[in-house]
Amino acid sequence: xxxxxxxxxxxxxxxxxxxxxxxxxxxxxxxxxxxxxxxxxxxxxxxxxxxxxxxxxxxxxxxxxxxxxxxxxxxxxxxxxxxxxxxxxxxxxxxxxxxxxx
Length: 102
Description:
The mean pLDDT is about 90. The protein has helices at about 1-25, 35-40, 45-65, 70-100. It has one domain (about 1-100). About 85% of the residues lie in helices and about 0% in strands. It is mainly α. The N and C termini lie far apart (about 45 Å). The protein has 4 helices and no strands.
């Protein structure tokens, strides 16, 4: 359970960094409606809140829900979603750097 929680937190970090970079360059859009609104209000608060609140929530659930099977499956679901997002980030990063060279 600890490894899954750590993986979710690590993938969240990369998602926050890559999303922030993509949004700053106008290459990507934020698909989470709540984060999109928050980003338009203040990008820094959005970035910091993702880096603080998600790890706190994941840690709390992982520690307090260690005996619950739904926590395990929830963390698996989060890992899958973040891996898909990570793959999409790699795609746009590749396209961005190819366009920069052209």
